[in-house]
Amino acid sequence: MRIDWWTLGLQTINLLVLLWLLGRFFFRPMAKIVAERQAAANELLDAARKAQDKAEAAVQEAQAERDRSAAAREAVLDAARKEAEAQRAKLIETAHAEALRKRSEAETAIDHARSEAEAQLARQANVLATDVAAHLLEGPGARLPVGAFLPELEQALAELPGRTRSAIATPAAPASLISARPLADDDAQAARTAVSGALGHDATLSFDTDPSLVAGLRLSSGMVVLDVNLRADLDRVLAGLDSRDG
Amino acid sequence: MIQPPLTAEPVFHLGPVPITQPVLTTWAIMALMVLFSVLLSRRLKQRPGRTQTVMELITGALDQQIGDVVQSDPAPYRALIGTIFLFVFVANWSGALPGVEPPTAHLETDAALALIVFGATLYHGVRVNGVVGYLKTFADPHWVMIPLNLVEQITRTFSLFIRLFGNVMSGVFIIAIMLSLAGFLVPIPLMALDLLTGAVQAYIFAILGCVFIGAAVSERGDAEKNSRERSAA
């Protein structure tokens, strides 16, 4: 066996050339395309990872937003609840105050009504008392003489102004002398004399009766009315009682 | 006149250079491989077709093997180991074509392959470890081992191409003998076996070349490790 050195050299050169050519046209492009695909896959994976991160961030943001919304809703509900509570308390307070006011007004009205009723009752009692007194005095009063009331009538006429005295019981303004019972002639004459003396002129009198006077006289002439009788006294007593009872 | 079976006679001469049959066959194989590579590389796409997928699978498997052996990035060794594997594979299988004798059945082709592996071992050893560092690996684990390591470099290179030559050449001889003795169809099973042997031998040659290179580029680390172990002892 011998080695052909020319063939050995040529084959070595051939293989070196083949090595370069395959490296240039086969292995390098294959490695490049694989690397490019790997890079593209990595980019896709990175993009997918970013998208996933973004989606997770969006989910977290949505969760946070939902939490914030829930908190805001809770705050609004709490505020509304407090507002409603405050309004309710205010309404209760207003209603309470209104009830108190109404109650006070009612109590005032009741007091007023009671006072009026009491006053009316007192008035009625006073009237009743004076009526009772009038009935009680009817008997004794009938026995009193007219002359017992003439001095008092004369004093009342004397206390009138002079112009009034001169104007009453005149023919232009005749006076009426009213008694509880019809006067006897001498009593009427005595009364005319007394009145004329008190007035300073001849009095023009007419005589009349009014049982409600109980006892005594009433001189009426125009605007002037002079009461000298028990009814007037009872009326004054009644007025005094009314004023006392308020 | 019967020609010596292990001798490649010149087919023609280019000046003083004799062109033998293995050289012609190698040129044809080179042309086919380069043409295929050029056509394939022009049509590479991000979405690969069937052929591109097969080629990418081969390249990926090659990178995986180189990475497992060298324990580093396979890119610097991909073209060398890949070219050796593909060439030996195609050259071995070219014997299945009628009238074609595999170039690897001749000692010169296998020696050229082994010579390239030897040169690549030196180149990458020096590239990774530096000249001094690579030379220091011959004194590992002890300077006494320098002669043995030097002899190892030669003998393993010889064993590399002798193994390939013996397997392919024997297959060719057996088929030729069976063809001359038995007839036309009898050698077919042996030819199928020869294809299997050729594929296995291509793989063995490439892997052994890869192992030699891997050993060269990793011997620095081993040497330093052994030195530390000796110091500790």
Automatic annotation (TrEMBL), chain A:
<protein>
    <recommendedName>
        <fullName>ATP synthase subunit b</fullName>
    </recommendedName>
</protein>
<dbReference type="Pfam" id="PF00213">
    <property type="entry name" value="OSCP"/>
</dbReference>
<keyword id="KW-0472">Membrane</keyword>
<keyword id="KW-0406">Ion transport</keyword>
<keyword id="KW-0175">Coiled coil</keyword>
<dbReference type="Pfam" id="PF00430">
    <property type="entry name" value="ATP-synt_B"/>
</dbReference>
<keyword id="KW-0066">ATP synthesis</keyword>
<dbReference type="InterPro" id="IPR050059">
    <property type="entry name" value="ATP_synthase_B_chain"/>
</dbReference>
<feature type="coiled-coil region">
    <location>
        <begin position="41"/>
        <end position="72"/>
    </location>
</feature>
<feature type="transmembrane region" description="Helical">
    <location>
        <begin position="6"/>
        <end position="27"/>
    </location>
</feature>
<dbReference type="InterPro" id="IPR002146">
    <property type="entry name" value="ATP_synth_b/b'su_bac/chlpt"/>
</dbReference>
<comment type="function">
    <text>F(1)F(0) ATP synthase produces ATP from ADP in the presence of a proton or sodium gradient. F-type ATPases consist of two structural domains, F(1) containing the extramembraneous catalytic core and F(0) containing the membrane proton channel, linked together by a central stalk and a peripheral stalk. During catalysis, ATP synthesis in the catalytic domain of F(1) is coupled via a rotary mechanism of the central stalk subunits to proton translocation.</text>
</comment>
<keyword id="KW-0138">CF(0)</keyword>
<keyword id="KW-0375">Hydrogen ion transport</keyword>
<keyword id="KW-0813">Transport</keyword>
<comment type="subunit">
    <text>F-type ATPases have 2 components, F(1) - the catalytic core - and F(0) - the membrane proton channel. F(1) has five subunits: alpha(3), beta(3), gamma(1), delta(1), epsilon(1). F(0) has three main subunits: a(1), b(2) and c(10-14). The alpha and beta chains form an alternating ring which encloses part of the gamma chain. F(1) is attached to F(0) by a central stalk formed by the gamma and epsilon chains, while a peripheral stalk is formed by the delta and b chains.</text>
</comment>
<comment type="function">
    <text>Component of the F(0) channel, it forms part of the peripheral stalk, linking F(1) to F(0). The b'-subunit is a diverged and duplicated form of b found in plants and photosynthetic bacteria.</text>
</comment>
<keyword id="KW-1003">Cell membrane</keyword>
<keyword id="KW-1133">Transmembrane helix</keyword>
<dbReference type="InterPro" id="IPR000711">
    <property type="entry name" value="ATPase_OSCP/dsu"/>
</dbReference>
<keyword id="KW-0812">Transmembrane</keyword>
<comment type="similarity">
    <text>Belongs to the ATPase B chain family.</text>
</comment>
Automatic annotation (TrEMBL), chain B:
<feature type="transmembrane region" description="Helical">
    <location>
        <begin position="112"/>
        <end position="135"/>
    </location>
</feature>
<keyword id="KW-0375">Hydrogen ion transport</keyword>
<dbReference type="InterPro" id="IPR045082">
    <property type="entry name" value="ATP_syn_F0_a_bact/chloroplast"/>
</dbReference>
<keyword id="KW-1133">Transmembrane helix</keyword>
<keyword id="KW-1003">Cell membrane</keyword>
<keyword id="KW-0406">Ion transport</keyword>
<comment type="similarity">
    <text>Belongs to the ATPase A chain family.</text>
</comment>
<dbReference type="InterPro" id="IPR000568">
    <property type="entry name" value="ATP_synth_F0_asu"/>
</dbReference>
<comment type="function">
    <text>Key component of the proton channel; it plays a direct role in the translocation of protons across the membrane.</text>
</comment>
<keyword id="KW-0813">Transport</keyword>
<dbReference type="Pfam" id="PF00119">
    <property type="entry name" value="ATP-synt_A"/>
</dbReference>
<protein>
    <recommendedName>
        <fullName>ATP synthase subunit a</fullName>
    </recommendedName>
</protein>
<feature type="transmembrane region" description="Helical">
    <location>
        <begin position="79"/>
        <end position="100"/>
    </location>
</feature>
<keyword id="KW-0472">Membrane</keyword>
<keyword id="KW-0812">Transmembrane</keyword>
<feature type="transmembrane region" description="Helical">
    <location>
        <begin position="200"/>
        <end position="218"/>
    </location>
</feature>
<feature type="transmembrane region" description="Helical">
    <location>
        <begin position="164"/>
        <end position="188"/>
    </location>
</feature>
<keyword id="KW-0066">ATP synthesis</keyword>
<dbReference type="InterPro" id="IPR035908">
    <property type="entry name" value="F0_ATP_A_sf"/>
</dbReference>
<feature type="transmembrane region" description="Helical">
    <location>
        <begin position="20"/>
        <end position="40"/>
    </location>
</feature>
<keyword id="KW-0138">CF(0)</keyword>
